[in-house]
Amino acid sequence: MTKLKAMYAYAMQNHPELRGRITSAPTFGSGTGGAKELQTFFENGLFDLDGIIVAINVYTDTALVNYANVLNNPKFAQKLARHEVWVTECGQIGTTQQIAFMESVFSRLRSMLHARNIFWYSMYDANDANAYGLIYGISDENFTPRPLFAALIDSTQGTSAAQTPNTPLIVNPPGIDPAIRHPHSDGADENGIDRSRRKER
Predict the structure, then answer these.
(1) Distant-in-sequence, close-in-space partners of 124: CB < 8 Å, separation ≥ 6
(2) Which tens digits make up the pLDDT trace of 89-123?
(3) Which of 11, 112, 139, 148 is the most exposed place for a label (fewest CB within 10 A)?
(4) Which of 62, 55, 65 has its CA nearest to residue 88?
(5) First to last CA, the chain
């Protein structure tokens, strides 16, 4: 926390326009460890950083429930009210799992965690072992949208994604503001695909 405070102070002094645009280090997205780390951040002075965004990753129900316990703890309520919460990673592998995740989890990210922004882990598949993408990637030269991506486009534009190949890749389904963004766009190659690293969970 000492290093984060020093870096934040430097950023505010030299780039005050970044206020409200800097996140804390996103905490782990499965199990209970992320919530414990988040509570430690709070207790060690994260709220002293005016305007910092509270960033968390959420991939499982266990993580969601434990984060909710921390974020809804009355002892943090007053200070937390001055900060936005962002879910900087979420998602599932596979067509069926992605749709189920969207149907069962997304609304709870808003209602239980008060998340202002929610980011899907990956727009494109990095490889067969990391198939979190909303669009088939390396194994599909046409970058075909998965059903969830098509459904999101349908829900916002009333048209089929398959019929609108130039549809923007940032969409906002009902109740999520914004819901789907590629969190690693700065590391993307010329095709918009992030090949910089494979995340381990």
Answers:
(1) 133, 134, 135, 136, 137, 138, 143, 182, 192, 193, 194
(2) 999 988 889 999 988 898 899 999 999 999 999 88
(3) 139
(4) 55
(5) 23
